[in-house]
């Protein structure tokens, strides 16, 4: 099957079929990379024998994979390059369990590793166990969101910074426990220019955002709420219903994503392959440092 790339038909993203991990030529890489920069999200689908090698081959087109995660429960036990995402340990409960219909596995809108100096370049996500109900993943494009902002808000954002913290996010999700101070905080420009396509994008990541720096507190909180509503409006999201044979890779410098969750009576297991970023977007915030100085 020849390589084919076509838009998803949603607000963002493209579908890729005909990818052959054993024949990744320079021309194939160039075409896929151009689509990656244009659409921000690529859904590779149609594989008959999808495995970790195919996921790794897709990720390798965009850079080196990250080291194992600091949090043990997110490490794949047999494949160190992969992250294991499985609420409740990937184990369903019985249908008569009082919590059977409780929704678990929710992770709000975020960018991966927004709380470090060099956020990941990309992430490639593969479905291992797909729940019978729900379990979707969504993506929104912060470059498109920035373009559609009113001019007065764009002017207000210039020169502002935003602090991201993993500790600020753990209470907003139902995937992993509180890591304490295991992971750092980082200060990033609220708006920056994407180094590969020159698009202004937002370093928003609502799940990990701690505060916007450079405005009075109430004004900063109002701006943050306005940006979150604008960027993450559901009509702006491409929502993917997983099928066997799907790998989705996205531009983590530009796109936000979220896990919508699923009833506890079903299992959902995903393998994530994070790709290291070479762009130093921000800097770490030292413990006790005043926010005003960040």
Features:
294 residues; alpha+beta; 29% strand; 17 strands; 4-stranded antiparallel beta sheet; 5 helices; disordered C terminus; Double-stranded beta-helix
Characterization of this structure:
The chain has helices spanning 26-39, 52-60, 142-147, 151-157, 217-231, and strands at residues 4-7, 14-17, 41-44, 83-85, 103-110, 122-129, 137-141, 161-165, 185-189, 191-193, 200-202, 209-213, 238-240, 247-251, 255-263, 269-275, 283-285. The chain is an alpha+beta fold. It is built from five helices and 17 strands. It has one domain: Clavaminate synthase-like (Double-stranded beta-helix). The strands form four sheets. It has a seven-stranded mixed sheet with strand order 1-2-3-14-6-16-4, covered by helices on one side. It has a four-stranded antiparallel sheet with strand order 5-15-7-13. The protein starts with a strand and ends in a 9-residue tail after the last strand. Helix content is 17%, strand content 29%.
Short description:
This protein has a single domain (4-66, 94-293), classed as Clavaminate synthase-like (Double-stranded beta-helix, 4-Layer Sandwich). Helices cover 17% and strands 29% of the residues. It is built from 5 helices and 17 strands.
């Amino acid at each position: 099957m020849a390589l084919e790339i076509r838009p998803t038909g949603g607000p963002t993203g493209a579908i890729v079929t005909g990818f052959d991990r054993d024949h990744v030529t320079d021309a194939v890489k160039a075409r896929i990379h151009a689509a990656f920069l244009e659409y921000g999200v690529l859904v590779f689908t149609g594989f008959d024998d999808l495995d970790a090698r195919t996921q790794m081959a897709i990720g390798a087109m965009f850079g080196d994979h990250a080291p194992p995660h600091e949090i043990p429960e997110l490490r794949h036990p047999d494949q160190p390059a992969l992250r294991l995402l499985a609420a409740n340990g990937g184990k369903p409960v019985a249908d008569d369990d009082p919590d059977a219909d409780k929704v678990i596995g929710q992770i709000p809108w975020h960018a991966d590793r927004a709380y470090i100096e060099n956020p990941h370049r990309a992430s490639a996500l593969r479905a291992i166990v797909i729940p019978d109900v729900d379990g979707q993943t969504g993506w929104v494009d912060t470059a498109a969101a920035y373009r559609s902002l009113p001019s007065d808000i764009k002017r207000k954002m210039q020169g502002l910074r935003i602090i991201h913290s993993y500790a600020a996010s753990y209470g907003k999700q139902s995937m992993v426990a509180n890591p304490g101070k295991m992971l750092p905080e980082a200060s990033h420009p609220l708006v920056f220019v994407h180094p590969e396509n020159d698009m202004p994008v937002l370093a928003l990541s609502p799940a990990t955002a701690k505060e916007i720096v450079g405005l009075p507190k109430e004004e900063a909180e109002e701006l943050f709420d306005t940006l979150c509503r604008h960027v993450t409006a559901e009509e702006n999201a491409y929502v993917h219903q997983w099928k066997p044979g799907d790998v989705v890779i996205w531009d983590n410098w530009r796109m936000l994503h979220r896990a919508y969750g699923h009833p506890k009576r079903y299992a959902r297991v995903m393998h994530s392959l994070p790709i290291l970023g070479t762009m130093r977007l921000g800097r770490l915030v030292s413990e006790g440092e005043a926010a005003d100085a960040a």
